[in-house]
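Q: what does this look like with phenylalanine bound?
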Amino acid sequence: MDIERQFEGYRQAALAAIAAAQTPQELEAVRVEFLGKKRGRLKELQGLIAKVSPEQRPTVGKLFNEVRTQVEAALRRRKAALEQPRRAAEGIDVTLPGRVPALGRRHPLTQTMDEFKDIMGRLGFDVAYGPEIEDEYHNFVALNIQEDHPARDPLDNFYLATARTQTAERDRTAVLLRSQTSTVQIRVMERQPPPVRIVSLGRVYRPDTVDRTHHWMFHQMEGLMVDVDVTMAQLKTVLRLFATAFLGQDVAIRFRPSFFPFTEPSVEVDMWFDGDWLEIGGAGMVDPNVLTAVGYDPERVSGFAFGLGVERFCMQRYGIGDIRWFTENDVRFLRQF
Ligand code: PHE
């Protein structure tokens, strides 16, 4: 019977197309073609049933249902097979060497500062933090730096444009990028009574012409210790132990008389390293005016403070020749640490 041959042709074509589909998308196209409700080829076959004689109709109808059920079942199976995730082991040569993932690492300055915190932590110093945008009170006034002091010159600082710089509250409202981490001394003493033993590490900013050893942004480690009977000898010992621990060999520390408004006496600190005296920062005994400004009693407690340049130490230890490399983000440089 002609109609039976048509059913058979449909069945074979449909099963072959289903088996040939390689993706769920291809299979969907096959479904539309062979089983689609609107214009699919199955629909055409169904139309043929109406044309056979009433006696033949039950047989033809039964055949039609068989073919349809079979094709639908084949489609379902193929769909399930295609949607199953590919087995991971398929086609993988387990004897090939693996791909090494590219690991990031901390910036050399971050590594240096983390190590500083470690060393100072072992000496009993906690880590304190302060904002990089500071008011004049904490950057200057409380540190005993008078209004007419050259350090406050607008040309030597990054003042930020704010609305109310001329009011009586200027100290608290004029803000700048902090020029030193000594600001954190004030912030710590304001919120806790003595004894204090902290370090604070972070960025400071000063307008400067950039060259191999100068940058308008660099890092300092501030140290502060306030208690009864704190002495300058302790300051020198702490600095020597710190530098020795970081550089891995015995380092000598030299003090040269200097001046800072917030310490008295004040010194420049040098260290003897690798056959040379190197300047590493400033230090001194906390000025009584500073202790008074934060509500401490200078008759009862004394303290020392120091501020060290972080880049200096890092460059010294690794033999880095140019401070600009720290901020250029050249991975050929950064990968070496
Ligand atoms: N703040 C000083 C500077 O940036 C360094 C310093 C810190 C000096 C603490 C004395 C005490 O130059």
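The mean pLDDT is 91. Residues 10 and 312 are 84 Å apart (CA to CA).
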